[in-house]
């Protein structure tokens, strides 16, 4: 039996939303996605918020969303790739549930995000270099906050979710 909230962190394209939805269904829990929550609250896309308010404006909205969403009980929450940049978010995630870092190779992340124009940080001339830079700066933060580190991309979603459930059950023992 897994008690408490489960929060998924990791880079864009690692599978947080997909794994989160399947995990929540397997556990009979509600699933939330902080980026989707922000879009629902504002009525506009993340890309639009980045364009109008810049990354700093988006990160402030993200802090509020994470503070509110993590106050729920027994949920699965997929966070945005940069949510761990704020110390306040890392502290809240650590204190309010189990944190799972979903990691993937640079090649997998590039392949999964290549055609997605809704990712403002990848709208550059060299998305591969941008992914490498984001991973280099964020990986230590993901690892610092995580109770579990799980690599995605090598197995089916069902295999990933069942392996994750086993790891989470072991945390409680």
Helices, strands, pairings?
Layout lengths: L4 E5 L6 H12 L2 E4 H9 L3 H24 L5 E4 L8 H10 E7 L2 H8 L13 H19 L2 E4 L5 H15 L2
Parallel strand pairs: 1-3, 1-4, 2-3, 4-5
Helix pairs in contact: 1-7, 2-3, 5-6
Q: What is shown here, in short?
A:
This protein is of the alpha/beta class and 173 residues long.
Give a written overview of the molecule:
With 173 residues, the protein is of the alpha/beta class. The chain has one domain (5-163): P-loop containing nucleotide triphosphate hydrolases (Rossmann fold, 3-Layer(aba) Sandwich). Helices cover 56% and strands 14% of the residues. The chain has helices at residues 16-27, 34-42, 46-69, 87-96, 106-113, 127-145, 157-171; strands at 5-9, 30-33, 75-78, 97-103, 148-151. It has a 5-stranded parallel β-sheet, sandwiched between helices.
Question: What is the fourth-level CATH superfamily?
Answer: P-loop containing nucleotide triphosphate hydrolases
Average pLDDT taken over every residue: 89
Series of secondary-structure elements, N-terminal to C-terminal: EHEHHEHEHHEH
Radius of gyration: 15 Å
What are the key terms here?
56% helix; 7 helices; single chain; alpha/beta; Rossmann fold
């Amino acid at each position: 039996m897994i008690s408490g909230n489960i929060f998924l962190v990791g880079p864009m394209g690692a599978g947080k939303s997909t794994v989160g939805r399947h995990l929540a269904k397997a556990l009979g829990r509600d699933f939330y996605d902080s980026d989707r929550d922000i879009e629902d609250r504002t009525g506009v896309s993340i890309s639009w918020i980045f364009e109008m308010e810049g990354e700093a404006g988006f990160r402030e909205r993200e802090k509020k969303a994470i503070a509110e969403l993590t106050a729920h009980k027994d949920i699965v929450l997929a966070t945005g790739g940069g949510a761990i940049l704020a110390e306040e978010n890392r502290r809240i995630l650590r204190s309010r549930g189990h944190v799972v870092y979903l990691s993937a190779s640079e090649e997998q992340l590039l392949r999964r995000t290549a055609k997605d124009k809704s990712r403002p940080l990848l709208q550059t001339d060299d998305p591969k270099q941008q992914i490498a830079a984001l991973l280099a700066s964020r990986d230590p933060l993901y690892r610092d906050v995580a109770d579990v580190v799980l690599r995605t991309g090598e197995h089916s979603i069902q295999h990933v979710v069942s392996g994750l459930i086993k790891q989470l059950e072991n945390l409680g023992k």
